Amino acid sequence: MSAKKPEMQPPEALSFILHQDNLMWSRIQIMHAVQFAGLAAAYAVDDKAAVSIAILIVTATLTLLAFCLLRRDRIIQGELLDLHPQFGWSSPRKWHTPLKGSEVAWAYVVLLLAADACLGFAVTGKWPGPL
Hints:
Number of strands: 0
Largest sheet: none
């Protein structure tokens, strides 16, 4: 069963595009909060490696789920921008602004998951060198 896309007038479309943008920003804030809480909790119980690893796994999973929601919001926004190209504002890339927001989101989630992995290695004692 396919869903029919509703027809939107330009003011409604712009409102929905901005709503999707706000949703994406809130997903980044959720990822930040989950990571902060997860890394702090894993560090706090580092003497119990199994608990710490479990916390890091849950943290990474929640981060990935929030990122998947962010990507879905971006796809919905992109489809709406295809229907209303007059709202597809863009500026050229410059040397001091080389990335778009969607590219930064990918880098952000990779860095957050790398932090989880690093703390996981440190907690299990498999990290090289003293900690």
